[in-house]
Specification:
Shape: globular
Radius of gyration: 28 Å
Number of helices: 25
Strand content: 5-15%
Length: 752
């Protein structure tokens, strides 16, 4: 097992990595924090204050490893609404009152962490959480459109009112401002989508902010179009919570309570969802502690509000920057805060020259990443039932508010599950059920959604370790907490077999995602895991995480094979291999570096069997990767078990591909006759020997003729694909088999 970097004093030995990462994160965090504060209706400086406090608190209280915390765009609409509610429509009046609510939210989070309620986040349906984020993205975009054009639009308490006022912004359009905003928005999309590394040396948000400063000087912009910063941070730059006013005005207490509930719910759900997503791209595959993170957030929020700062949660964009920059521990968050503090005192006049239109462009891009069309297509691919819940939740949030919209989404999920479980009303009309029996069945189904799904637990012994066989009924988001508590209390290293019995009628999307993640954790921890009984369930779609029902009345029509499936089936027959056309979740059984990254990992058109002298598995593999969790990346991968099982572990990458994930590897320079082509890099395990002997002339010649090949060997199993191609043709797949034969022959000593 490789040693993973730890937080605390032990993490200081990684200071070189974390310091460099902290600088890069600070350059991204600076414009983002300013923009989030503006979107929240607060003074811009409060965004920097929040980020600085988060950086000084999180490294000492922990909970996560590479997650960068601070103000987040996802909370901006809730903060703005709370400020308007408490201030009676006046942002200046509502801001000090909102700080009281943020402080109380932090205290509530500390109490919730004490009772270990972090796991209760799984109670919310996954689709409702994703719909909440999409609705927040739409809200951010809509509210920033006037600023992009240089128009002054009065702040509205509801989204419907904001949308109705958008046409009024057109007559106020300032062409110089619109030019800056439009160009900034174009560059945000273009630079983030660019494949040229040199164009991404400077983080796009920082580049846009600097460009805006230059254009602001060129157009001699009025200060009303620029960010407002205090002349002296220590004198008038910090707003303190209005505790005295809240205590003396009982009529505010209900509104304060409503804001605290809203912030606690959204803050907790989004934070736990973010750390879970960041854990998936952590090169060291460490697992964050939800309850410790919740406690740390509580302390940070309370302190942030006392110094006039906003709510603090883990941020996905900044965390990805940290990982890409090589950050290893939470000390990167600390260094980020140090550099932001320096910027705040040294460059405050330069910061005050950033145009609001440039900040609006950055926020619109952030909002777009939360709600782009791929979010909807991904949800539809999981199931039509999920897209219905998704759309209902988004519309409910936009037409009401975040808290009520989420509750409506949860209610829609309950009704959808009841609809799927309850027979059609026609069984009452045709006399098969009485009306009373029908209502009784609905009530039983409703109770079943919240009942413990665990039927029995049997302890056995397997390979000298305890092994638990757990029989289950229906698994849905509303009863997952019971199963999660049981699995969390099992002995470390114990094997698990989950058996979904005939009494289980449905497994919803959230349940499937939970089972998939638990299986991933077992693979990572080298625990034996088996899931039985799914073969008796009807899958709503081909997506591996779609809902499933056990329904004997369901007619299963044989699906027509696509052109790709026909091609792969013929290839399997030609090579005498087994072919499976379904979609399956993939697990990193052999601990491949490539398979450590990404999320929503699936394979289809799987071919398996013995061919060309090796036990082969070949499949069309897809995954998503942060920060764009809705775009699938496809590759045809081959994973044969080499007959030369003693071959050392090594990785060959095109360029510096996956460099951040090769944390437990060292780069080996190839020289002389074994020199790789210039566009390839060779890596070996840090604690192992030098496997460069496997760089045969045949392998080098193959790589020279096939640009973009990724090759990895782990414990005698090879993984390879072409990074420059998605799904390979029959001829290209044959070339991967040739590569396999070369590696296998070299490892056997049959090649020089």
């Amino acid at each position: 097992m490789r040693e993973s970097p730890q937080n605390g004093l032990k993490g200081l030995k990684h200071w070189r990595y974390d310091l460099l990462a902290g600088i890069q994160v600070a350059l991204v965090s600076l414009p983002l924090s300013l923009g989030i504060a503006i979107a929240s209706g607060a003074p811009p400086v409060t965004g920097l204050i929040s980020a600085i406090i988060a950086g000084f608190i999180f490294p000492f209280l922990g909970g996560a490893y590479v997650t960068i915390s601070g103000p987040a765009a996802g909370l901006a609409p809730a903060l703005l609404s709370g400020m308007l509610l408490l201030g009676g429509g006046d942002l200046a009046v509502g801001y000090p009152l909102l700080l009281v609510a943020i402080c109380l939210t932090g205290l509530v989070q500390i109490v919730l962490a004490f009772f270990k309620t972090g796991r209760y986040a799984i109670f919310l349906p996954v689709t409702v959480v994703e719909a909440m984020l999409a609705a927040i993205g739409l809200m951010i975009i809509i509210k920033q459109i006037p600023s992009l054009m240089g128009a002054v639009s009065p702040t509205s308490q509801s989204m419907l009112e904001t949308i109705s006022k958008l046409p009024l912004a057109l007559p106020q359009l300032e062409w110089s401002i619109f030019f800056i905003g439009g160009l900034s928005l174009f560059l945000m999309f273009y630079l983030n989508a660019s494949r040229h590394e040199w164009m991404r040396k400077v983080p796009p948000p920082l580049f846009v902010a600097c460009l805006g400063i230059g254009l602001g000087y060129l157009f001699s912009l009025d200060t009303k179009f620029l960010i407002t910063m205090p002349e002296n941070l220590l004198e008038g730059g910090i707003t303190f919570p209005a505790f005295d006013e809240v205590l003396s005005r009982p009529e505010l207490w209900w509104s304060i309570l409503l804001v605290v509930i809203t912030l606690t719910l959204i803050d907790g759900v989004e934070s736990l969802a973010t750390i879970k997503a960041v854990d998936k791209i952590d090169p060291f595959q460490r697992k964050s502690d939800a309850n410790i993170t919740l406690r740390t957030m509580g302390v940070s929020n309370s302190l942030s509000s006392i110094f006039g700062g906003l709510t603090i949660i883990p941020g996905g964009v900044k965390s990805r920057v940290n990982i890409d920059a090589g950050g290893r521990t939470l000390w990167a968050n600390f260094y980020n805060a140090v550099f932001l503090l320096i910027f705040l005192f040294v460059a405050i006049d330069i910061i005050a020259r950033i145009p609001l239109a440039a900040i609006a462009a950055i926020l619109i891009y952030v909002g777009w990443k939360l709600c782009e069309y791929k979010v909807f297509t991904k949800t539809y691919a999981i199931g039509r039932d999920q897209i219905v819940i998704f759309v209902i939740t988004v519309l409910a949030i936009l037409s009401t508010d975040l808290l009520l919209g989420i509750l409506i989404g949860v209610a829609a999920e309950v009704l959808m599950l009841l609809y799927l479980l309850t027979p059609s009303f026609r069984v009452v009309l045709n006399g098969r059920l009485s009306l009373g029996q029908s209502f009784s069945l609905v009530w039983q189904n409703l109770r079943g959604l919240f009942c413990d799904p665990v039927i029995s637990v049997v302890q056995k012994e397997s390979e000298g370790r305890p092994h638990y066989e757990i029989a289950l009924s229906s698994i849905v988001c509303f009863n997952l907490i019971h199963l999660d508590k049981l699995l969390a209390n099992l002995p470390l290293g114990a094997g698990v077999t989950l058996v979904v019995t005939e009494s289980g009628r449905i497994i919803d999307h959230t349940g499937m995602e939970y089972l998939h993640q638990f299986q991933d954790e077992c693979m990572r921890d080298k625990r034996k895991f088996e899931l039985q009984g799914l073969e008796n369930f009807f899958q709503f779609t081909n997506h591996s995480l779609s809902a499933r029902m056990q329904d004997v009345m369901q007619i299963r029509e044989e699906a027509k094979h696509s052109e790709r499936e026909v091609e792969m089936e013929k290839l399997a027959q030609q090579w005498g291999m087994k072919w499976e056309p379904g979609t399956f979740s993939i697990h990193n059984e052999h601990d491949f570096v490539y398979l450590r990254r990404g999320s929503d990992k699936q394979e289809t058109n799987v071919m398996s069997g013995v061919s060309h002298g090796c036990e082969i598995r070949l499949a069309d593999y897809s995954h998503t990767a942060a920060p764009d969790y809705y775009t699938k990346h496809w590759h045809t991968i081959i994973t044969p078990r080499l007959s030369a099982s003693t071959i050392s572990d090594f990785v060959i990458t095109p360029g510096y591909y996956l460099r951040r994930y090769l944390a437990d590897y060292r780069e080996v320079e190839s020289v002389g006759a074994n020199k790789l082509p210039d566009n390839y890099r060779f890596y070996a395990k840090k604690e192992g020997g030098d496997p460069s002997a496997y760089l045969s002339s045949e392998l080098i010649e193959f790589l020279r003729n096939h640009e973009g090949i990724y090759l990895e060997v782990q414990n005698g199993v090879m993984l390879s694909f072409n990074r420059n191609r998605d799904l390979l043709s029959t001829e290209e797949i044959a070339s991967l088999l040739t590569l396999m034969e070369i590696v296998n022959a070299t490892g056997s000593g049959k090649l020089d």
